[in-house]
Amino acid sequence: MQANDENGDGKEMSLEVMRVNKRKKPRNEVDEKDAVEQEKEMKKLESFLFGNIYAPVEFGKEVEEGDAVGNDTSLFFVDRSANSVLSVDEDDGEVLEEEPKQRKAVWEDDEEAKANVNIAKVNRLRKLRKEEDESLISGSEYVSRLRAQHVKLNPGTEWAQLDSEPRNNKYSDDESSDDENRAVVAHGYKDVGAVDDLLRTNEDFVVKSTSKLLPGLLEYSILTDANTEEPSSGPINSVQFHRNAQLLLTAGLDRRLRFFQIDGKRNAKIESIFIDDCPIRKASFLPDGSQVIIAGRRKFFYSFDLVKAKVDRIGPLVGREEKSLEVFEVSPDSSTIAFVGNEGYILLVSTKTKELIGTLKMNGTARSLAFSEDGKQLLSSGGDGQIYHWDLRTGACFHKAVDEGCINGTSLCTSPNGKLFAAGSDSGIVNIYNREEFLGGKRKPIKTVENLTTKVDFLKFNTDSQILAICSSMKKNSLKLVHVPSLTVFSNWPPQKKTLHYPRCLDFSPGGGFMAMGNAAGKVLLYKLHHYHDA
Fold first, then answer.
1. Which residues fall within 8 angstroms of residue 118, CB to CB, at 6 or more apart?
2. Distance between CA atoms of 371 and 418, rounded to whole angstroms?
3. CB-based contacts of 342, cutoff 8 Å, min separation 6
4. How far is residue 409's CA from residue 402's CA, in Å, rounded to a whole number?
5. DSSP-based helix, strand, coil % in the chain, nearest 5
6. Do 403 and 386 meet the contact criterion of CB atoms below 8 Å apart?
């Protein structure tokens, strides 16, 4: 009996479970339908916001009507703001150029086509005529001519003009270039590649103009002495910047050749070389920067190789009896060294072989030399008060003329642009000549500078030929700077509060930003010229 009761109870429980399951099943189906609808709604919203991400449109195939939601939104879009645009297929990498579309006017006046304007009747409209007898024109033609006249009278600036042609990106051929790092600029502006170049450099964006230096007052700053780490124990006879503008050479009677790295603050010493048997009267870099020529009151000279750090003694020169080779100049092409010799002779030595390759002979004694800007000609002056022009290819003197007011010529200098040269004398007079006019027969200088009263020992043009330094070592502060374009002397030079002592030599850096001056006290004074941005 008990077993039968248990069986009966089990059947009743199973029936109840089946009824509950039947009730739950419809509820689960309803929940599933709701979930599907919610998922569709979410996809619809995502497609609306982010494009067709669940059923992307294949590029090149048309989208049929009645497709799934979101198919009307393309994964790729075309920017219509450009006059001509490029559409790129990421899969095939093909570039398709679309035809440029002309912009339509926002508003058009229908009355323009109907109206007629008499441009001959009104005086201020007669300039719109294309022919003399033209009078009536249509309203649209009148508007177009007015626009053309406005453009003619008010031309736009170049930076504001739109470029109708598609931009040629110089990086387009490089598949590995990083497009994300390129500059994004307004469409249509020219020279877009220059913006990329500007953003790819760490140089200063604002660069001062190096066009014209103004006369009157020279803007400069006094910097730390160039040789402050190791001043010379004797007078400085030579200072010169290397072609890289960071290396400065100093040399003097203490027999030491020193090199400094110029930064305007610390000016660290790099190297010092002692020449035992030659108090240095002059030292000069070769223009190519490979060697330094060192000379004194000796019948030999030295060559210092910057790469090998080796000093070579050269001479005496074969067939010559000169006891001093202290005055010399190096040609701009680094091929020839010209030494002042005895009895008016000029000795030409090869920089490669260091051997004598020729001589030139003046009528009087030779005292100063200067090469032309191309190194093919040589200027010389001396005891007869004349200036000689030599052709180094033939060795002939092709021009000779008297330096006005000069009895003994003591210094010469040519400008880097080749247009001018300056000649100094023992009376303190400096004559500035136009070289082309001088060779053409005009003997009068374009300017005579009379600011010095003692012998002119040194002349130097700066890199862009806008400043001429004139110097006399026989009087304190006897250094003047001439503004070459106006042929006037800077009134605020030399500095009032700081003495220059006895100036002996001077040089400008290749970029014009630094000026170094050596004096008899063994110091090399350093100045920053504000007009020039580069050192």
1. 135, 136
2. 10
3. 321, 322
4. 10
5. 15, 30, 55
6. yes
Answer yes or no: are the C-beta atoms of 439 and 393 closer than 8 Å: no
Alpha-carbon gap, residue 35 to 12, rounded angstroms: 35
Q: How far apart are CA 452 and CA 475, in angstroms?
A: 9
Q: Give yes or no for a contact between 526 and 224, defined as CB atoms under 8 angstroms apart.
A: yes
528 close to 513: Cβ distance less than 8 angstroms: yes
Q: Is the dihedral of CA 505, 509, 515, 516 positive or negative?
A: negative
Nearest to 420, CA basis, from 483, 480, 509, 503: 483
User: Which long-range contacts (C-beta less than 8 Å, at least 24 apart) are formed by 288-296?
Assistant: 288/243, 288/334, 289/242, 289/243, 289/244, 290/334, 291/351, 292/249, 292/257, 293/328, 293/330, 293/337, 294/251, 294/257, 295/325, 295/326, 295/328, 295/339, 296/324, 296/325, 296/326
Cβ contacts of residue 396 below 8 Å, gap of 6+? 390
Cβ of 312: how many Cβ atoms within 10 Å?
12
pTM above 0.85, yes or no: no
Q: What's the rounded Cα separation, in Å, for the pair 496 and 244?
A: 32
> Above 60 in pLDDT, residue 100?
no
pLDDT of residue 384: 92
Q: Which residue has the tokens 């450099």?
A: 201
Residue 436 CA to residue 433 CA, distance in Å, equals 9
Q: How far is CA 305 from CA 56, 236, 243, 249, 510, in A?
A: 71, 22, 15, 13, 21
Kindly state the DSSP code that residue 377 receives in the 8-state scheme: E
Single-letter code of the amino acid located at 192: V
Residues in the chain: 535
User: Token pair 């290396």 is at which residue?
Assistant: 247
What is the rounded distance in angstroms from the CA atom of residue 411 to the CA atom of residue 382?
Answer: 8
- Tell me if residue 292 falls in helix, strand or coil: strand
pLDDT of residue 101: 56
**AA letter at 419:** K
Residue 458 one-letter amino acid:
F
The phi and psi torsions of 9 (rounded to 5 degrees) equal: -65, -40
| CA torsion, ordered 110, 111, 113, 119, to nearest 10 deg | -150
Sign of CA dihedral 424, 427, 433, 437: negative
pLDDT value, residue 150:
86
DSSP code per residue over 159-207: GGPPP-SPP--TTTT-TT--GGGS----TT-S-HHHHHHHHT--S-S--
| Residues 6+ positions from 482 with CB-CB distance below 8 Å | 430, 432, 447, 449, 467, 468, 469, 470, 488, 489, 490
125 — pLDDT class (breaks 50, 70, 90):
confident
- How, if at all, do strands 301-305 and 386-391 pair? unpaired
Residue 121 — pLDDT band, cuts 50, 70, 90? confident
